[in-house]
Specification:
Uridine Diphospho-n-acetylenolpyruvylglucosamine Reductase, domain 2, Uridine Diphospho-n-acetylenolpyruvylglucosamine Reductase, domain 1, 7 helices, 3 domains, 305 residues
Length: 305
């Protein structure tokens, strides 16, 4: 079914549909084929009504800023939902709490907490992406994780019903959320504590400097490629396997931090995925450790006619 054909069976919305939407411009890797339909809901109510009335056999994918996402060259058959401005607001609540929509970049949550003198959320300065991704992956950096600060998350299920989940409901473990896969998160409430703005600012500067000095933040990359195995570091295993600087087509293992894959400019999604799988195989052969992807890979490898 083409994007135009799919539009004929989708429900009326107040937001915006785009048929055969390019996805490469929506991901940090800057690769990938088109989505049949891209949907930008007007607000939570619009999202809920869409989910309630969308035919259940149509595949749905939610994306944020595309920092931890690889869309394959064949694109995505179904509807990609991209949450926009209505989901991009932050507010400070009594008790040293911050509420944020899931389209809010993680760094902006850290900044909102800084401005309000709230400590405990500075680690979000070191996570590329949005709060939606942090919720779905138990995003963390520099010794803290989302599970440490989350009070509750609001989400809609595939039937359009609204749910408010406690941190226990999220069933978090390392870089994993055990909440149902069909849930689309729309906002979250975080708990911080009273802090000194000068100390918080200094912590954020330290995180920024550490990240910029050790990671290829100005390259076309998707963030950390593989999860750290129990008791080890993925980058160390990749380095020991001789993969630093390894290339496949236009994709390369970063020389700066070898748990990052880089699009040197002309890479295809297949180049990047093949490079990642090559790294996994070499690490397994040299160390006996099986690395697991942290980057989400979606879609078809080849575009169907």
């Amino acid at each position: 079914m083409s994007g135009g054909d799919l539009l004929k069976v989708l429900p009326e919305v107040r937001g915006r549909y785009v048929a055969d939407a390019g996805m490469s411009g929506l991901t940090w890797f800057r690769v990938g084929g088109p989505a049949d339909v891209l949907f930008s809901p007007a607000d939570e109510e619009d999202l809920g009504l869409f989910l309630k009335n969308c035919p259940p056999d149509i595949a749905i994918l939610v994306v944020g800023v595309g920092s931890n996402l690889l869309v394959r060259d064949g694109g995505f058959r179904g509807v990609v939902i991209r949450l926009g401005k209505a989901f991009g607001k932050t507010s400070v609540e009594p008790g040293w709490r911050v509420r944020a929509g899931t389209a809010v970049p993680d760094v902006k949550v850290a900044k909102a907490a800084l401005d309000a003198g709230i400590a405990g959320l500075s680690f979000y300065r070191g996570i590329p992406g949005t709060i939606g991704g942090a919720l779905r992956m138990n995003g963390g950096a520099y010794g803290r994780e989302t599970v440490d600060v989350l009070i509750e998350a609001t989400a809609y299920d595939r039937g359009g019903a609204r749910h408010v989940l406690s941190v226990e409901d999220m069933k978090y473990s390392y870089r994993h959320c055990g909440a149902p896969e069909d849930l689309i998160f729309t906002q979250a409430l975080f708990q911080g504590e009273a802090g000194d703005t000068r100390m918080i600012a200094e912590e954020m500067r330290t995180i920024t400097q550490a990240r910029e000095s050790s990671q290829p933040v100005r390259s076309r990359t998707g963030g950390s490629t593989f999860k750290n195995p129990d008791g080890g570091k993925a980058w160390q295993l990749i380095d020991a396997a001789g993969c630093r600087g390894l290339q496949v087509g236009g994709a390369q293992v970063s020389e700066k931090h070898c748990n990052f894959l880089i699009n040197e400019g002309e890479a295809s999604a297949d180049d990047i995925e093949t490079l990642g799988e090559t790294v996994r195989q070499r690490v397994l052969e040299t160390s006996g450790v099986e690395l697991h992807w942290e980057i989400k890979r979606v879609g078809q490898k080849q575009l169907t006619p």
